[in-house]
Amino acid sequence: MHFFPIFVFFTLFVQYISAATSGSSIINPIVKVGKNVTKLKPDFSTISSISVVDPKAQTISFEFNIDATESQPNHAALILNCDDRVQTYHSAKCSDGKCVFSLPVRNFPQTMLYFHSTTQGNTPIKALLTYNCEGQDSFIEKHIFDIFLDEKKVKDDLLKLDKDKIFPNQIAVLPEIHHVFQNPPKQVNSSIATIFSLIIVAVSILTIILFVTNVKVTMTKSCGTIVYSLGFISGLVALEYSFYQYYLGVHDIFGTLYQVFILLTLPTLWLGARTLKRIF
Question: 134-143: long-range contacts at Cβ-Cβ below 8 A with a sequence spacing of 24 or more?
């Protein structure tokens, strides 16, 4: 009776270890940096060190084959972690039972290069493989290799850049954002518009009075005088109406100028000249 709990515990422990270690479908894992090839153990029991001599030009390639007889890995991703401060996630390209992670060093974040080269002891960039096998609920994460970049070249490249842009001080006070809002469009003063309108109305009334006082004289000259006079007065009224529409905001300045100078001014001047010629 006392051995039964121990037997159950031992059985569950063996199953857990078997699930975690056996049935791995990853075989022949290798890391390539240029012409250098580093072979890794399938169980990743040993952490290899990968050196990159030329960070700008070289690309780290992590490859492995998939054993079709074992449970297949799902959602495989490679995580690069530097000093537990900067992490990047990379997905694999899988085809014909082979998965490849391509890691161009020039695309590494500048913050990662900064922490890698400035921390004491040249902190390595850890490569962690995470995946989920079929039939398992939890993800498996394994530390497979460390990346060491050429410290001098990385520092030389960082010195050429602005440190505040690489690693901004998130605690410091950020510069104020100054924005100048656009002023509202200027409009003519209402008093000036009223005076201008009254002047136009007075001139129009005066023109009508002069026309009425001289209509008897002009009627004897030609029957066309009344036509020119009515056309001239209509043009003045149309001009006043156009300005009035502009003051109300119905038309913009360009539409008003088009109506006044193109459609109304020229015909009104011509009709006014013909009318004055016949009256006087």
Answer: 134/71, 134/72, 134/74, 135/71, 136/19, 136/71, 139/75, 140/20, 141/79, 142/44, 143/44, 143/47
